[in-house]
Write a structure and sequence with these properties.
Bound molecules: nicotinamide-adenine-dinucleotide
CATH topology: Rossmann fold
Number of helices: 8
Order of helices and strands: EHEHEHEHEHEHHEH
Number of domains: 1
Number of strands: 7
Largest sheet: 7 strands, parallel
CATH class: Alpha Beta
Structural class: alpha/beta
Shape: globular
Helix content: 40-55%
CATH superfamily: NAD(P)-binding Rossmann-like Domain
Radius of gyration: 18 Å
CATH architecture: 3-Layer(aba) Sandwich
């Protein structure tokens, strides 16, 4: 049985400027909503102009302080400009960054092409270097901050047709540990979430019924995750409740990897 708390959430991010990349839908949107519920001031980065505008308008209509930034995280110059704009618009440096944006293509080895791999790594791996670089200078001036990176269980267990995706998400874990060590002296924590199968348009919706049934059967908790269940882990890692957690990875996969490895 699935139960969710309806109790009011804590205000752990009160007044903190939070950047969430890929916030226009899916897990990123759930994280933006959760951070806002905890008092965060939300900057949403995405590339889909219409979707970003609609998402931010929806958040603002619910009384949330949110702004949208059309920023391709794969482009270093665009990322730097967007972070400058966020600090200007909110009048304060960024205290929390969630690297959530992804561009993914799952292909059999013989079909893997240069363009897809390039885009995947630009957005999901190199992009994290650009955002971390841009936010670090603001967090250093601020006296600290928290960065949360989205990896995937594909970094831990092999699924078919996921060579490039697995490489990208394993890279996210290495990047998380290396940046945690480098940024520790500045009071900046960097941690990763490793989600399993989460019901978003980008995941479950893409699979045929047989695959969905097989994957469900492999889940010890008997169901896929929900975006808000990843968002609650992100809120923990973004808040002072995790102040002694550094360079760690939290697996949130309903037990999928412990059962299959
Ligand atoms: N959904 C899952 O089952 C699952 C499982 C494991 C890990 N994850 C990870 O969680 C994160 C979110 O997944 P999701 O399913 O919500 O993805 P999604 O595809 O639904 O959303 C990704 C968002 O990123 C945006 N985006 C794409 N390219 C961008 C760019 N260059 N710059 C800025 N934004 C860009 C997209 O427009 C979209 O709004 C990803 O990092 C994903 O790899 C998801």
């Amino acid at each position: 049985m699935t139960t969710h708390t309806t109790a009011p959430v804590a205000q752990r991010l009160s007044g903190t400027v939070c950047v969430v990349t890929g916030a226009a839908r899916g897990i990123g949107l759930a994280i933006a909503e959760r951070f806002a519920a905890e008092g965060g001031r939300i900057a949403c980065f995405d590339v889909g102009a219409a979707r970003l505008e609609a998402t931010v308008a929806g958040l603002v209509a619910r009384g949330i302080e949110a702004r949208g930034y059309l920023a391709d995280v794969g482009r270093r110059d665009a990322v730097a400009d967007a972070f400058d704009a966020v600090e200007r618009d909110f009048g304060a440096p960024v205290g929390v960054l969630v690297n959530n944006a992804v561009w993914a293509r799952f292909q059999p080895l013989e079909e893997v092409d240069e363009e897809s791999v390039g885009r995947m790594f630009d957005v999901g791996l190199k992009g994290l270097i650009w955002t971390t670089q841009a936010v670090a200078s603001q967090m250093k001036r601020r006296g600290g901050g928290a960065i949360v990176n989205l990896s995937s269980t594909s970094a831990l267990q092999a699924l078919t047709h996921s060579i490039a995706y697995a490489a990208m998400k394993a890279g996210v874990l290495g990047l998380t540990r290396a940046s945690a060590v480098e940024l520790s002296p500045h009071g900046i924590r960097v941690n990763a979430i490793v989600p399993g199968m989460v019901g978003t348009p980008a995941s479950v919706g893409k699979f045929d019924e047989a695959t969905v049934t097989a994957r469900l059967a492999a889940m010890p908790l008997g169901r896929f995750g929900e975006p808000r269940e990843i968002a609650s882990v992100a809120a923990f890692l973004a808040s002072d409740d995790s102040r002694y957690v550094q360079g760690a990875e939290i697996v949130a996969d309903g037990g999928w990897t412990i059962a299959t490895r």
